[in-house]
Automatic annotation (TrEMBL):
Catalytic activity line of the entry: 2-C-methyl-D-erythritol 4-phosphate + CTP + H(+) = 4-CDP-2-C-methyl-D-erythritol + diphosphate
Taxon lineage: Bacteria, Pseudomonadati, Pseudomonadota, Hydrogenophilia, Hydrogenophilales
Entry-linked InterPro entries: IspD (IPR001228), IspD/TarI (IPR034683), IspD/TarI_cytidylyltransf_bact (IPR050088), Nucleotide-diphossugar_trans (IPR029044)
Function per UniProt: Catalyzes the formation of 4-diphosphocytidyl-2-C-methyl-D-erythritol from CTP and 2-C-methyl-D-erythritol 4-phosphate (MEP).
Biological or metabolic pathway of the protein: Isoprenoid biosynthesis; isopentenyl diphosphate biosynthesis via DXP pathway; isopentenyl diphosphate from 1-deoxy-D-xylulose 5-phosphate: step 2/6
Residues carrying the site annotation Transition state stabilizer: R40, K47
Family: Belongs to the IspD/TarI cytidylyltransferase family. IspD subfamily.
Molecular-function GO term, any one: 2-C-methyl-D-erythritol 4-phosphate cytidylyltransferase activity
Organism from which the protein derives: Hydrogenophilus thermoluteolus (Pseudomonas hydrogenothermophila)
Name the UniProt record assigns to this protein: 2-C-methyl-D-erythritol 4-phosphate cytidylyltransferase
Keywords linked to the UniProt accession: Isoprene biosynthesis, Nucleotidyltransferase, Transferase
Amino acid sequence: MSAVRVRQHPPPAPLDLCPIVVTTHTRTFAVIPAAGIGARMSAALPKQYLPFAGAPLLVRTLSRLLRVGWIERCYVVLAPDDRYWDTLVTPHLAQLPPAFAVAERLRVVRLGGTTRAHSVRAGLRVAHAEGFGDDDWALVHDAARPCLTTETIEHLHGSVGNSNVGGLIAIPATDTVKVATPHTSPNSFPVVERTVPRERIWLAQTPQLFRLAVLRQALDRFPDATDEASAVERLGLQPILVKGHWSNLKVTLPGDLELAQAIWSLQEDSLSDVG
């Protein structure tokens, strides 16, 4: 494993939205933004470093990505002043299976920012500098989604296929969706403004998989985007929605950690039974 430190530069000029020449030998890399502090967890550590199934949560997320051999490289984007990776994560990386080729496939990028888009952009710049091309695939995944399965990754990759844009894992809404009015005061209750037909509502997850050129342009133009797909949408493009599974949950609140550990254990037991 090697750490990558790149001098900060102004963002590259926006790319022209010309058709990407899709080749038969496109490559795929992953970007894992992990510079946040996870304030909603109210924990002593950033949530990506919380203990999870005998290792930091981030290690378990990385192990799910490294299982997939066609993901050539994983760029973990940390805050420049991150104090936890070297002491909490590095010792566990040596325990991952040799087939994961951690030393060759894992990069640490200490250029994360205060927003998700800033961190993802940093990972994309390093990937481009290391030889990934405009038509290659950038797979972005949340550090706090450790229960991602190989089947989900393969399903996304296969469904997006030869798209010139990309797509994302999402879940069709099953509950009735209400839009609330804004709160009129701190002590007031919200009230329903309208009901939205759930047939058209999908709940976005990760991974999200986009052509490198498309994603770089989208995040350069719309750095306030809350996820990669929304930035791409604001370019006037339409990402493909690929149905995922509820078990691919994101650890956001304290109760999520226990549920995710239960799901993880069941998944690992299933893998052991098969293998």
